Automatic annotation (TrEMBL):
Keyword NADP: yes
Pathway: Cofactor biosynthesis; (R)-pantothenate biosynthesis; (R)-pantoate from 3-methyl-2-oxobutanoate: step 2/2
Gene Ontology MF terms in the entry: 2-dehydropantoate 2-reductase activity; NADP binding
Entry's Gene Ontology cellular component terms: cytoplasm
Domain Ketopantoate reductase N-terminal stretches: 5-152
Keyword Nucleotidyltransferase appears in the UniProt entry: no
Family, per entry: Belongs to the ketopantoate reductase family.
Domain Ketopantoate reductase C-terminal: 176-292
Annotated PANTHER family: 2-DEHYDROPANTOATE 2-REDUCTASE (PTHR43765:SF2), 2-DEHYDROPANTOATE 2-REDUCTASE-RELATED (PTHR43765)
This protein's UniProt keywords: NADP, Oxidoreductase, Pantothenate biosynthesis
Top-level taxonomic group: Bacteria
Protein name: 2-dehydropantoate 2-reductase
Organism: Pseudomonas khorasanensis
Gene3D superfamilies assigned: N-(1-d-carboxylethyl)-l-norvaline Dehydrogenase, domain 2 (1.10.1040.10), NAD(P)-binding Rossmann-like Domain (3.40.50.720)
């Protein structure tokens, strides 16, 4: 009998993973916040994945955090700012040797989760797949991408990678997941806040070439200082390539702000500034960017953390 995949969070990525695992015939349980959400989910009859315009519904069983069943394998698919509280509610259900897969963008939440559940193995993921909700319990698979998975404290690949293969979830095990996470954080720091402050698509940043270049130089300095030279290499070139390749898109942070949703600023720019301060590294443009973004979020009535 295969190990059950518990999936916490029925949002975009949680649904994208849960439906593909269920489609492959693997056992999946969806963990919802409370009984009210569980009743709403039961009424909908399952999770719907829309791929290439075709919708398929999967009757993945749902449960609340209080369900008694032990958890051996848990995919945490909430936002970075919700991850620590979410795991705290499930800690008593984790079986010995439980494994957690953390899908959160940025850095900081992974350590906070690991500190809450030292008995579990925490595996981090860096995902470039794209999905969004077009209704309750419905997700559109918008951008094919890739998932890098790794455990900074243990290079051994887990056995369940074969489940991801069966579910056709594109992935690779990496022994340098921290480098992947730092690189993506740096890209997000160089692009996302500026798209918010200049109110533009990613491509609009070609008009702000110098500002982007200055930020890339400071970010590369930070990556070097915190022992991530591989993440620092050719950063500006890659940022410019991503700006070109995604010119027509609005960044995820832009979309959060435009939709009055809380951003993950504390785990992106906030984390970068915090680590720089810890290393006594003076990065004036990065700090100023954070202050401008915080002021902007406050002016829109959004949380600035
Ligand atoms: P989302 O907001 O669509 O989904 C998060 C879900 O978690 C929500 O349904 C929320 O209600 C639920 N949740 C929060 N706390 C919970 C709790 N305690 N118990 C049960 N459910 C809880 O978010 P998302 O877009 O799927 O993003 C998840 C993470 O993946 C983020 O860090 C994001 O940056 C990252 N990411 C997303 C995408 C994407 O395309 N959506 C791509 C790459 C990375
Ligand atoms: O990941 C991104 C995002 O919008 O969050 C890109 C497209 C790379 C821009 O930073």
């Amino acid at each position: 009998m295969s190990t059950i995949w518990h999936v916490l969070g029925a949002g975009s990525l949680g649904t994208l993973w849960a439906t593909r695992l269920a489609r492959a015939g693997l056992p999946v349980r969806l963990i919802l916040r409370d009984a009210v959400r569980l009743r709403s989910y039961a009424a909908a009859g399952g999770l719907t994945l829309i791929e290439n315009g075709h919708a398929s519904t999967y009757a993945v069983p749902g449960e609340t955090p209080d369900s008694p069943e032990p958890i051996r394998r848990l995919l945490i698919a909430c936002k970075a700012y919700d991850a620590e509280n979410a795991i705290a509610r499930l800690a008593s259900r984790l079986a010995p040797g439980a494994e957690l897969i953390l899908l959160q963008n940025g850095l900081g939440s992974q350590d906070a989760v690991a500190a809450r559940v030292p008995q579990a193995r925490c595996i981090s993921a860096s995902s470039t797949e794209g999905a969004f909700r077009d209704g309750d319990w419905r997700v559109v698979f918008a951008g094919h991408g890739f998932n890098w998975l790794g455990d900074a404290g243990n290079p051994l690949a887990p056995i369940w990678l074969e489940d991801l293969q069966a579910a056709r979830i594109p992935h690779e095990w990496t022994t340098d997941i921290l480098t992947r996470l730092w690189r993506k954080l740096a890209l997000n720091c160089a692009i996302n806040p500026l798209t918010v402050l200049h109110d533009c698509r990613n491509g609009g940043l070609t008009e702000h070439h110098c500002e982007v270049a200055t930020l890339c130089a400071e970010l590369a300095e930070l990556l070097q200082r915190c022992g991530q030279p591989a993440a620092a290499g050719n950063l500006q070139q890659e940022v410019e390539r991503v700006i070109q390749a995604t010119a027509a898109n609005y960044s995820s942070m832009y979309q959060d702000v435009a939709n009055q949703r809380r951003t993950e600023i504390s785990y992106l720019l906030g984390h970068a500034c915090k680590v720089a301060a810890r290393h006594q590294l003076n990065l004036p443009h990065l700090n100023q960017l954070q202050q401008r973004l915080v002021a902007h979020l406050r002016s829109r009535g959004l949380p600035s953390d």
